[in-house]
Amino acid sequence: SGAMTKEYVWLDDMLVGMFVVQSGGTVARFVTTGQIDEPLLITQSNKNVAWSGYTDPYGNQGTLSGNASLLDLRLPGQWYEAEGNASGLHQNGYRDYDPSLGRYTEADPLGIDAGQNVYGYVDGDSVNWSDWKGLAPDINLLPPGTIEYKNAQNVPSTPGLCIIAAHGDPTEIHNSRGDPISPEILGGIIKDTPSCRRKPIELLACRTGADPGNGKPSFAWWLAHQQGQDVYAPNTYAWPYPNGDVSLADPIPNSNPAIPDPKSQGQWVHYTPKQ
């Protein structure tokens, strides 16, 4: 009939509740999630448990108590349609995920350029990471285990574009240990990454497209001329979100931890190599 039966409530990209349409009206349910935001518990407004369960490392969901049909979300970004779903697959953005195998049923859109295992899910580490859209950046130099690394992993790779995530400033970027990386060193990493060869580069690294002042060119300018590839870089701070979206904005002054200022709007700066 097209009538709504359920609506989920999110805090940023974390599931926190739902509204369920029943014969007597719409009721609220509250959702508790685990370390990678997988659903574990649904409670009623009177604090009674409506459902409790678990998710194994491959994304299979089990019920400990309550009505399993209340929830059709699985690992972050995955949706399971119980009705008529004989395959048991989870819809995961650009691809379908098979929890019985712990991998995708379709190859990465980048093909072999994405790596040897074009069906793999978060490099086999779904205990710590998730993939909202069934894709990932080409090079992630952010420190593993941090929220920045986790969010950047959900920024989708794009055919025809090399995406590099890192901490940065107008004159340099840093590796996962915090050591500075020159355009020459980054060029070697790009050369060793098949999906980045001879493609325009998007630097998901704060202020790498900003003017350093004193007549010096930006890191993105140096990289474009070092590599002979077009480079797109932010002129302000880059904020990746768990759902794979990215915003460019200055932080709110004195915010701790830093949060983007909605009144500030940055932009991608395009650098072309020397002809």
Write up this protein.
The chain is mainly beta and 275 residues long. 9% of the residues lie in helices and 30% in strands. The chain is built from three helices and 19 strands. Strands 1-2-3-4-5-6 form a six-stranded antiparallel β-sheet, with no helix packed on it. The chain has a five-stranded mixed β-sheet with strand order 10-11-15-16-19. A hairpin with a 2-residue loop joins strand 2 (14-22) and strand 3 (25-33). Helix 2 packs across helix 3. The longest helix is centred in the C-terminal third of the chain and has 9 residues, at 183-191. The mean pLDDT is 87.
> How far apart are the first and last residues' alpha carbons, in Å?
60 Å
Strand content: 25-35%
Shape: globular
Strands ordered across the widest β-sheet: 1-2-3-4-5-6
Rounded to the nearest angstrom, the radius of gyration is: 21 Å
Alpha plus pi helix count = 3
Stretches where pLDDT is under 50 for at least 5 consecutive residues are: none
Helix content: under 10%
The secondary-structure element order is: EEEEEEEEEEHEEEEHEHEEEE
Count of individual beta strands: 19
Q: What is the averaged pLDDT score?
A: 87
Q: Could you describe the largest sheet, including whether it forms a barrel?
A: 6 strands, antiparallel
Question: Which structural class best describes the helix and strand composition?
Answer: mainly beta
